[in-house]
From TrEMBL:
Residues annotated as domain Pyridoxamine kinase/Phosphomethylpyrimidine kinase: 32-280
Native organism taxonomy: Bacteria, Pseudomonadati, Pseudomonadota, Gammaproteobacteria, Oceanospirillales
Presence of the UniProt keyword Lyase in the record: no
Pathway field: Cofactor biosynthesis; thiamine diphosphate biosynthesis
Pfam families: Phos_pyr_kin
GO molecular function: hydroxymethylpyrimidine kinase activity; phosphomethylpyrimidine kinase activity
EC number: 2.7.1.49
Protein's name in the database: hydroxymethylpyrimidine kinase
Enzyme class: transferase
Entries under PANTHER family matching the protein: HYDROXYMETHYLPYRIMIDINE_PHOSPHOMETHYLPYRIMIDINE KINASE THI20-RELATED, PHOSPHOMETHYLPYRIMIDINE KINASE
Gene3D superfamilies assigned to the protein according to its UniProt record, in alphabetical order: 3.40.1190.20
Entry keyword set: Kinase, Transferase
Segments passing through the bilayer: none
InterPro entries linked to this entry: HMP/HMP-P_kinase_dom, PM/HMP-P_kinase-1, Ribokinase-like
Length: 290
């Protein structure tokens, strides 16, 4: 018989004390049945970039690569129970918020974030469909601006969403995108990542990281592919993941930009659906992107 009298629980305690805490990231968003955007894209991006993903579903969509055919909002009571279940048990470091269907959902999510106070909050303000149609009523957009966006460390609007937030025209070129910077600063948000990916005539895909007193220009070569479904969800989720891992905001955005660029670059390796397919979240296996 071994003379070792150490109990199993002592072994466990010694082992776990040396572990680095797992970076846990929560996504609060809608479900995409086609798997390319929404909660599904968020979980893939967070996992591929090295974090543990958990989720709160705000709506269920009937959706594929050809479009959205139906949306079912989750009842407020169940959204609240999901939030309480996650925050009461898991050490959530960063939160990414995506699709919120209406004023009441926005107010509930904002109230719960104030209650639980995660260290980082990234909001992807999903307001405008690819067709240009508003997904949120103006009253809901105003609620988003007053209740949720001021809590965020970073918001990540595309050009159409930035136009909806500022009440201005959608930028059509680099010059009008530059003019949008001051209008976004007037919203008094902490930091804004204005995404220029929809300026398809530009050789590069250029984003503006807008701080109160400075501007960082992040540019990467434009990749010609139709498979870009879920890019906004993926980028914001990757940024939240990198924030949870201890990167500062600029580093997290730079790493997120690098990740989404590579995911788009490898998108055509997938053959998914008959429309606009998803990006390739696991282009590099499950390895972290550095």
């Amino acid at each position: 018989m071994s003379s070792d009298t150490t109990t199993p629980s002592a072994h466990v305690s010694k082992s776990t004390s040396n572990h680095v805490p797992t970076p846990i990231v929560l996504t609060i968003a809608g479900s995409d049945s086609g798997g390319g955007a929404g909660i599904q894209a968020d979980i893939k991006a967070m996992s591929a970039t090295g974090s543990y993903a958990c989720s709160v579903i705000t709506a269920i969509t009937a959706q594929n690569t050809l479009g959205v055919s139906a949306i079912f909002p989750i009842p407020l009571e169940h959204i609240e129970k999901q939030l309480d279940a996650v925050f009461s048990d898991l050490n959530v470091i960063a939160v990414k918020v995506g699709m919120l269907a209406d004023c009441d959902t926005i107010k509930l999510v904002a109230a719960k974030l104030k209650q639980y106070r995660p260290k980082f909050l990234v909001v992807d303000p999903v307001m405008v469909a690819t067709s240009g149609d508003l997904l949120l009523k103006m009253t809901s957009i105003n609620t988003l601006k007053s209740e949720l966006l001021p809590l965020a460390d970073l918001i990540t609007p595309n050009l159409s969403e930035a136009a909806a937030l500022t009440g201005s025209l959608v930028p059509t070129d680099s010059a009008s995108m530059t003019l949008m910077v001051d209008k976004l600063r007037q919203l008094k948000m902490k930091t804004v990542l204005l995404k220029g990916g929809h300026l398809e005539e530009d050789e590069n895909s250029t984003d503006f990281l807008i701080f109160a007193d400075c501007l960082e220009v992040l540019s990467s070569p434009r990749i010609q592919t139709r498979n870009t479904h879920g890019t906004g969800c993926t980028l914001s989720s990757a940024i939240a993941s990198y924030l949870a891992q201890g990167n500062d905001l600029l580093q997290a955005v730079q790493l997120g930009k690098k990740y989404i660029t590579q995911a788009i670059e490898h998108a055509d390796e997938l053959q998914i659906g008959r429309g606009h397919g998803p990006v390739n979240h696991f282009f590099n296996g499950h390895a972290n992107v550095r």
